[in-house]
Amino acid sequence: MNKRIGKPVFFVAFVLILAFALTTVFGVATYNGDIKHIWVHSLEDIRLGIDIQGGVDVTFEPDEGVEATAEQMDAALQVIKLRLTNLSINDSEIYVDYNNNRIIVRFPWQSDEENFDPAAAVNELGQMSELTFRYGSEITGDVILTGSSVDTAAPGYDQQNDQWVVQLKLNDSGKEAFATATTAQAANNGYISIWMDETCISNATVNEAITSGDAVISGNFTSESAKQLADQITSGALPFSLHSTSTKTLSPTLGSGALRAMIISGLIALAFICVYMLFLYRLPGFVAVIGLIGQVAGMLAAVSGWFGFLPSSTLTIPGIAGIILSVGMGVDCNIITAERIKEELARGKSIETSLKAGYSNAFSAILDGNLTLAIVALILMGAFGTDNAITKFLNATIFYFFGATTEGFIYSFGFTLIMGVILNFVMGVFAARLMTFSLARFKAFQKPALFNYNKDKYKETKQFHFSENKKTFFIISAVLVVASLLTTLKGVEVSIDFKGGTIVSYSYSGDLNETACQSAIESILNTPVTLQKGESFDADTNILTVSFSYDESLTLEQQENMLNAMLETYPDNNIQELESNDVSPSSGREFFAKCIVAVIFAALLLIIYIALRFKKISGWSAGIFTIITLLHDIIITYGSFVLCGFEIDSNFMAVVLTIFGYSINNTIIVYDRIRENQKLMGQDTTVAELVNSSASQTMRRSLRTSITSVSTMIIISVVASVFNVNSILSFSVPMTFGLIAGTYSSQCIAPTLWVWWNEHLNNKTIKDLAVK
Questions:
Q1: 365 near 610, Cβ under 8 Å?
Q2: How far, in Å, CA of 612 to CA of 592, rounded?
């Protein structure tokens, strides 16, 4: 065995992964009386999205006397978005009612949270927060510069004076103005004061001119207040102050049982995958289970803030989709390796040699599959994320012209996906290899049967005639794609987030059945509606919020009909309408424009990457056909959404992004085997035979990976049905169709398109490929 990996390595790795998982779940905290100090964050510290946990609904209006224009309302919306992002709230919904000059803000929160104060957040969101530098120490002093002249603001610690400060970096115009002002004031030891709205936050004597463009705000700051001020400066000033006219809690948009259903289905799915891997692969399966537990723990730790250098973030349905895709990649990584080890054992090699060759041969497919996903994840984070160290370059160049269109639910997907890719290498490649080699040092584990290999029962890979049946596959795909597109004629339901619509709030007493109310309202409007229960913050009043997309404003007659329908259903609950708002989409044209650019940019990068990595097998055609199969899978997924009557919403985006990554990985695996077999098979082998052999060899791996992913979606669907959380079905059911389509296209469409194209170019044999 490998002398460098000793027997104790497995136990060390196992203990470390177990400790990591336990601290991720339970955290580490100490108590000093009633004061709790958190050293390591736990799962309880994860802020779940509005869709899963519920949150707060706030209606803002400009202060009295302000007649806001539509442009000013839009500017205020963008500032509020940035402020929420600075509060680590990546999952928010913001709507504008231009008719009534209202901004409706929804963000996740639960009443038992201890580390987040929604009332303080609401107050901070509504403050104008206009930063000004003024001559002298009075507010009547002339303005030197404003917050718009600040390039960056960050909290810092002044060790010399033992205090927290806010460090500013001025832009060119601010640098020049500040240099002029400090030069003038330094001549007579004058003052420069710094104001936030009408509050003086710093007043300093100027002893010398400051021409570097750096400035420091000092005061009685704590680390938290310094960060808050830096965030306010970074997000910019509102064009006017806002006050909240109503603040209320919201139940989860997916339904009250959503969180419970997802936890139960997640545990069942994880248990199924563990048993499945143990049954199929024995010892490698056991190691895979340990690695998968570490991988899941790692992704949850990244979201909770377990890693000190990564801020906590909101976990949404798209974020969970990213975790599911990452777990699928982790399973796939272990299946590829285990299958490669069995192939080496079938060639008569020893356990040690088979392990070395298996991990070596599997690595290229794992590397390419994960790097293509990393490209997609980084582009999504760059397009829809915050201006952080990872995606700053993308924000500042490619996506700069779209403005601040941060979308937390897509960023959440990209973040969990990139963490999954990193952890896939850490757990699925590095740790799994160490543990497998370590266990193989024990004589008791040096048996082929423990790798589920039996010489007498092992069957050589059956050859399927993929190339000869390409016309049949093309016809099947054409029928599915056309049928999926034709579902549009049935009518497409688009959510309020993407289309705009109406939000109506009612007060009531007693208890209401959401399903009965939903049916009553939908019978009046003939459109799907979302109902959320809650309570007002300032009074003990039950609130029912009804949201739906609608092409036109509600008429008074329709509002009366909605109210009467609920009164007829619940005559004794004192139902009264509080307010009705016609709102614009929270994700509007800029969002969709950025989506298109992000997808095109990702597609181009993927084509280039595949062309370079697979240049020996006509890489440009391989890259283009990979994108074609992606479109094939996404169209079929879209058709399943429309056919089932689900709304096009954030769940749809989560499913499409997941299928995007899943299909890429599946196709890369097939191309990787084609690339490998090109070197191993004779030069006179035809490209059709090359593809038949390669696709046949990867089919077992593809099917086994798909079984884990599809089974997970089926489990989620069943549990959601049992708990009557039908909204989760709009995620799990189309995902099932998409996964099946992705498996089919990667095995039957991508490689056969590649054969067809190369035959068209007269690349009949492997030798022809090498020449051209």
A1: no
A2: 30
Domain ranges within the chain, ordered by starting residue:
1-48+254-454, 55-128+243-250, 131-237, 467-500+585-772, 502-583
Hey, CA dihedral for 330, 332, 338, 340, is it positive or negative? negative
- Cα–Cα distance between 212 and 673 in angstroms, integer? 57
Q: What is the CA radius of gyration of the chain?
A: 29
Pick the CATH number of 55-128+243-250 from 3.30.450.20, 3.30.70.3400, 3.40.50.300, 3.40.50.720: 3.30.70.3400
Backbone φ, ψ for residue 385 (5° rounding):
-100, -170
> What CATH number does the domain located at 467-500+585-772 have?
1.20.1640.10
The token pair that represents 431 in the structure block: 């740790």
Spatial distance between the Cα atoms of 399 and 376, rounded to a whole number of angstroms: 15
CB atoms within 10 A of CB 749: 23
Query: In terms of Cα–Cα distance, which of 406, 378, 373, 412 is closest to 393?
Result: 378
Instruction: Return the DSSP state at 677.
Output: H
Architecture label for domain 1-48+254-454: Up-down Bundle (1.20)
End-to-end CA distance of the chain: 43
Q: Which two tokens stand for residue 55?
A: 């949150």
Sign of CA dihedral 420, 422, 424, 426: negative
CATH code for 502-583? 3.30.70.260
For residue 247, what are the CA distances in angstroms to 55, 93, 281, 404, 460? 11, 14, 55, 26, 66
d(CA 575, CA 596): 44
Q: Same CATH topology for 1-48+254-454 and 131-237?
A: no
pLDDT along the chain (772 residues), means of 10: 74 95 89 76 80 82 83 81 72 83 82 62 74 88 87 85 86 90 88 82 82 83 79 74 82 69 86 92 93 92 82 76 84 91 89 92 90 85 62 56 56 83 91 93 89 74 86 95 90 78 87 84 85 76 84 81 88 87 71 76 89 88 93 94 85 83 89 89 85 91 89 89 80 91 94 90 71 52
| Cβ–Cβ under 8 Å, residues 346 and 458 | yes
Q: How many CB atoms lie within 10 A of CB 424?
A: 26
Q: Is 187 helix (H, G, I), strand (E, B) or coil?
A: coil
Q: Which of 766, 613, 761 is nearest to 679 (CA)?
A: 766
* Nearest Cα to Cα of residue 101 among 65, 57, 56: 65
The CATH fold assigned to 131-237 is: Gyrase A; domain 2 (3.30.1360)
**pTM for the whole structure:** 0.77
Q: Report phi then psi at 346, rounded to 5.
A: -65, -20
Written as six digits, the tokens of 156 are 């810092």
* Contact status, residue 37 vs residue 30, Cβ threshold 8 Å: yes
> Helix, strand or coil for residue 280?
helix
Q: Is 617 helix (H, G, I), strand (E, B) or coil?
A: helix
